[in-house]
Amino acid sequence: MLRIGEVAKVAETGAILLGRFVAVDGYYPRRRIRVVTHIHEDHVRGLDKSIREADFIAGTPLTLDLLEALGRRVPPAKRLEMPYNVKVKVEDDVIRLLKARHIPGAAQVLLELGDGSVVGYTGDFKLPGTEIMRGLDVLVIDATYGLEEHTRPWQEEAEYLLADIVREGLIHGPVHLYAYNGKMEEVMMILRRFDIDAPFIVSPRTYRVVRIMNKHGYRISYVYAYRSKMAEEAAREGYYIRFHHYSSWWRSRRNGAGTHILLTGWELREPYRRISPREWIVSFSDHADFRQLVEYVEEAKPRMLIVDAYRGGRTAYIFAEYVSRKLNIRSVAMP
User: Fold this and answer.
1) I want to staple 199 with a disulfide (CB 3.0 to 4.6 A). Which of 87, 195, 222, 291 is the partner?
2) Same domain, 169 and 275
3) How many domains does the chain have?
4) In this predicted model, what pLDDT tens digit does every residue of 152-184 receive, in sequence order?
């Protein structure tokens, strides 16, 4: 009988360990390959140690370029670019990255072991738009929103709702959007897809990220770094969208004219709330909600499930118990 932990586990460092050679999204000693699924901070911890010790740092070409742009330099000899669905052999194991809908460049990890076992890690994701891994012996899953009350039935309509609120706000002046890194860039693509043409004014960090994305074919137009000449011209005209980090909401939202919109996945009561004439809270997340987590597990049908408790906390244990009880799939939370 295959035992959880023999072929996959979540280490105390946050590393997802797959087989004997691969550590994902965290440092672990004596692992030949460190995979970075995406650039969010809780998935790149310990990267400097991994760069020193591992043979290779692997990720999608976009993720590796973004790491470089953000100051995480990987030596060329250790850089292992893995476009989606390209197989790389490590002794008797074969590793692939599959598309995850989360932030640009995000990936899942699929590992076929030499003994015939198949294990996978979702990383952060949401549905639809994430390829579901099937036929796994062990699946490691993110469960940020793993409680039954963590449900956003409007999640698939969130893009339309957000675009409508932004469009209305622009009628009255500039719009200020508050979101986490990664989510900002997703929102930029959504707004352009809905033909909202207002210039985007962003931090120097976000500007570097967008430039890298555009080199990879994303084509996000009219993006200007804060305090640049083009940004100042757009500000004078009063027709622009300014992106701020989520953490500055309480400090910045009462300063300056225009509409202020906070994007958060923790708004679970309704799709949006107007909290003052020019302030909105919009329910918008780049993580799967509870319904989508269950859908993924039901379709994947792994023999065993590990829920990532390093990032998910107590929610991971509750979700693992739910899957064991309701879906009849052996499940544990780790570490």
Assistant:
1) 222
2) yes
3) 2
4) 998 878 899 999 999 999 999 999 999 999 899
Whole-angstrom distance, CA of residue 31 vs CA of residue 28: 6
Q: Does residue 319 share a domain with residue 232?
A: no
Q: What pLDDT is recorded for position 157?
A: 87
Neighbours of 146 (CB within 10 A): 28
- Strands 138-141, 107-112: parallel, antiparallel or unpaired by DSSP? unpaired
The percentage of the chain sitting over the pLDDT mark of 70, rounded to a whole number, equals 97
Domain that holds residue 25: 8-149+288-334
> For strand 118-121 and strand 138-141, is the pairing parallel, antiparallel, or unpaired?
parallel
Q: What is the pLDDT of residues 128-160, one digit of tens each?
A: 999 999 999 999 999 999 999 999 998 878 899
Same domain, 18 and 116: yes
Contact assessment for residue 215 and residue 145, using Cβ atoms and an 8 Å cutoff: no
DSSP H or E segment with residue 212:
helix 204-215
The maximal CA–CA distance of the chain, rounded, in angstroms, is: 68
Is 1 inside a domain boundary? no
What is the per-residue pLDDT for 209?
95
Same domain for 203 and 268, yes or no, is yes
